[in-house]
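User: Teach me something about this protein's shape.
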Amino acid sequence: MKQLYSRLITCLVILGMLCAPILSKSQTCPDGSPQGNTAFNHSVTAPGGMSSFQVRLPKMNPANGMVTCANLCVTITGILRNFKMENDDPVSGTSATIFYQRSDNITGPGLSTPINSNVSIDPYGSIPLGPNNGVPNSGPDFFSVTNDTIMNTTTICRSISDSATLSQFYGTDSVQYQYNISAFVVVNTGGDIGNMSFSTTALANFRMTYCTCPAIVLPVNVHSFEVQKMLADKAKLTWGGFDDVSGNYTYTAEVSRDGRSFSPIRSFAKQDDADATYSTDYTATLGQGVYYFRIRQVYSNGYTRFSNIRQVELGNSAGPKFSVYPNPSTGIVGIKFDNNRSGQYGLRIFNSIGQVVVSKELSVGSSSYMQVAKLGAGIYWVRLTDKDTDESNVSQIIIK
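Assistant: First, the predicted structure itself:
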């Protein structure tokens, strides 16, 4: 009866980055200068273990150049460090076949589809084993291997040249890739195999090479970038643009809590004026503390430049801040807006048994005080809701 011996060799490979010069098809920059390249490299080897691993590859600092393409290459190798098996049948000989099965999967920035490699390798063919001779680890009934590269180097590359995709490779931080790897050793035999053990090593090298042009080819047009704190939780961003009529680019205001990882607030198309002014408001939603802001300028070819970073301390928006005035009152219900925020608000006033006695919409402009109702004696609760954020605050008023 045919027997199947299999063991799962789980190979955790910490991703490698080994970069060599790779140029895009167009090897001339927009200003006619030769195209260069910037390469990053790293290599790590790891033994057994099935795992998913995240690796970060450096982005291209926009101050150092313009990216016209990014080339990602993954080189994988499999080594059988130690293997042995022995025929346990003292009467009959047999044969065995060793299979090395490996799967590599990479996903991340610039990869519209994953990079996949799936292989099944028979490195030795049918291995004859004689009848067991009674002497362990020796004789024609025994087979062993040490440090044999059973999976020769295989390289898979992916080139990225789309301008919209390339914009995510600019910055001073990194891009992150997800790498999943598994490997199996399977032994097929028609006999009785024993005294079997093995270990493997998996190697993976990642190459990331950026095709580059000088940074001076396309300038950053942002100037006079300022961030002004308007309210406890609100800031205004303003900047000017020395806009080139023939240039094709956009501006994006960005925010960060750590000064490294930024997310977009709002994007702006380039204006026709040679010295245009741009502005946008930001309301804090990421907790209380220091907020960092910058302007990202993105050209149509994906080249990205950044303004200087500005910072300001903001607090979370916690609903409309107001007080009822006067309190106690002889009948008039007045609202004093502590943060003087203009906008649309919903007003509801409840009596002591929870009934709604007043319900109306308020449009608040620059005035910080507004009379909203007149009520009889009693205790009431005033709830004001910001229509933009759905945040509410409640305050009590006593009418004598």
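Now, about its shape. DSSP finds one helix and 26 strands in the chain. The CA atoms of residues 123 and 150 lie 6 Å apart. If you'd like, I can walk through any region in more detail.
User: That's plenty for now, thanks!
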